[in-house]
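Give me structure tokens for this 479-residue protein.
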Amino acid sequence: MNIDNFIPYLFIAAYLIFTLVIGIATFQAQNNTPQEYFLANRKIGSIVLFFTLAATNFSSFAFLGFAGAGYRVGISYYPMMAFSGAFLGVLFYLIGYKVWLLGQEKGFITPSELIAERLGSQSLKIIFLAVMVIFTLPYLALQPIGAGYLLENLTNGQIPYFFGATVLTFAIVIYVFLGGMRSVALTDVLQGILMFVLMIVAVFTIANSLGGITAANRAVYEQLPELFSRQGVDNFFTKPKWFSYMILWVLCVPMFPQMFMRFYIPKTPTPLKVSAVLYPLITTIIFICPVLIGVWAHIPFPNLVGKATDRVLPMMLAEYTPVWVASFVMVGALAAFMSTLDSQLLALSSMLTRDVYISYLRPNASLGEQTLIGRVLIVILAIIGLIIAYNPPSTILAIAQVAFTGLAVLFPTVIAALYGKNINPLNCILSIIVGEVMLIGFQLNIIPESFTFGFLPVVPIITFSTLIIVLGSVFSKNM
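Here you go.
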């Protein structure tokens, strides 16, 4: 029997065992309190914070989704994402530092707790929580979707899509269930290093098989020159749309509950400053890799459409790299999926535990009971993610775009809570409701596309949501 057939399984098993060991070790060392379980006692240093922020944000969308977008749109997808990364570094500090200060002062654990205290409204707290949960669930489902695609392709179908998705999700649930935030943060360091190194290995290995980067680009250019234009294939990136995508990523990422909660966990503000500087540098280097691989996929795999384009990264690895390289890179990509999914599960479980169970069902629940409920919710949320992933509804980019827009609607409210004065919570409630209703209207074509004026829906939605808060505050002062 060919030993090459066993190599992918050996790499996967070794990686999963290592994450399980971390989960067991952190479980044995931790105190059974919400502060410890959900926030690692707020004692995370600079290196760990940077890696956990980066690894949490680099998901299946950043690998399979970027490669698929490179295939469909072209190289122009990269500068849009690179610019977004630069602005995100600034927001990580402007939002993160204020969130850290309030967390230290008030002991907040969830985003909703901060919003409720700063703006003085339990109704706003519930609406804010509901939006975060509803729009994080589709994004959560992208991680088992990506893992399933990857394992199925690189094992030539020996691991079926949904079985692979289930196994990886189960492994994540074990170490998050045991170790909480400390386990997640420590595994993120490993996962972050694997992602960065192995994605670079992948792009150079594939390029070498195609005769080098220049030769690969030339071959694709002769086949489809639009892939190298500023607008992309079929004029995808008009200037308004390019601006819209950049705004979308910049506004939505700090609103991911798994990112927002990481602003609570540093020991001091210094780790936030370090992350704000390093994050743009890393994204500039790493984001080009999957996009290039997606563009080059036109050489062996022309004419792919729809969901098939999201599989080009594992397809290229299987086509152009030795099985041990493909397996090693596969572990790096799996690390991207796992580092996002574990953080999403922990963030959502903490919010539902603190903002629903403790606030409305069991106000006097012991600290041990709170962590127990958080662990149970992790299992339930993982099952919901798998249910959504069972039959993926669209391309990874399409799913992400809707989920990200829904979360971006929260951005004006967060800025108002952190930096505003005498903000009427009713204005924030209206801002969120109007924004989400507009998103539904665009998705169902109730609001005509012409209303976007060539932008993505996120631009008019955020414009209206912001105006509601700003104008509401002005009118309140004049009354």
